[in-house]
Design goal:
This protein has 210 residues and is of the alpha/beta class. The protein has a single domain, classed as 3-Layer(aba) Sandwich (Rossmann fold), CATH 3.40.50.720. It has seven helices and ten strands. Strand 7 and strand 8 form a beta hairpin. The longest helix has 17 residues. It is globular. The structure holds NADP nicotinamide-adenine-dinucleotide phosphate.
């Protein structure tokens, strides 16, 4: 798949690493073109592109900026009409220990409103950058889970296919509205990782009896 990553930080660079490894055609962009170039150079096969038009030709766009930058970033990358946009953001407070919005909306729903023609899917927001970068395999046959929520079947299938290509299990978490659950779930993951001291090599998953 042709994938554009917006953001060259912790998550953006981990996506570049794992998507290139999985055989995808990966472009990375950021507001600082030097950072995007640095990330692309570290992962041969990836290319850094200018922010204007970065989404052109992409099968999927991964939004890997902070939530507060989301609308500006998406509006900068070109026409998103009919594009799959994977929203990985968590609307975190400055101390990372809370959410700035929730329960009656979610960052995914607010982002969908900001880019009305795009097909937005929530996903990967419960995966720490360390887990994405190190890989989905937790040993003993255990894999980290990517939860996907969207009102678009195509967007959900696209995010699921990308996650599976990187070795993740996928749980279909329903419509985009259920990002209202996934963002607090990420909040709990962050509390456990940082607040309770479990570290960032952890990930939530769901188990079921056969
Ligand atoms: N880190 C995690 O473990 C984790 C896990 C799950 C989800 N998330 C979510 O993933 C997102 C990214 O997190 P992160 O840790 O990767 O953050 P980060 O390291 O701060 O990276 C954010 C990147 O986005 C770029 N950016 C900011 N505004 C932009 C704009 N308007 N246009 C283009 N690029 C822009 C930043 O550029 P500058 O360097 O110039 O600011 C930076 O390269 C956040 O929403 C976070 O909640 C993070």
């Amino acid at each position: 798949m042709k994938v554009t990553i917006i953001g060259a930080g912790n998550m953006g660079s981990a996506f570049v690493k794992q998507l290139v490894r999985a055989g995808h055609e990966v472009s990375v962009t950021s507001r600082d073109s030097a950072k995007a170039a640095q990330v692309a150079a570290a992962h041969p096969g990836a290319k850094a592109v200018a922010i204007a038009g970065a989404a052109n030709g992409a099968d999927a766009v991964v939004l890997a900026t902070g939530y507060e930058s989301a609308a500006a970033a998406l509006n900068a990358v070109g026409d998103l009409q009919g594009k799959v946009v994977i929203d990985i953001t968590n609307p975190l407070t400055a101390d990372y220990m809370g959410l700035t919005l929730g329960y009656s909306t979610s960052s995914a729903e607010e982002i969908a409103k900001a880019v009305p023609g795009a097909e937005v899917v929530k996903g990967f927001n419960t995966i720490f950058a360390q887990v994405l970068s190190d890989g989905a395999d937790f040993g003993d046959g255990r894999k980290a889970t990517v939860f996907v929520a969207s009102d678009s079947v195509r967007a959900k299938q696209t995010a699921a296919a990308l996650a599976q290509s990187m070795g993740f299990d996928v749980v279909d978490a329903g419509g985009l509205k259920n990002a209202r659950y996934l963002e607090p779930l990420a909040g709990l993951n962050i509390y456990l990782g940082y607040g309770a001291g479990l570290g960032t090599a952890i990930a939530p998953t769901w188990i079921h009896k056969a």
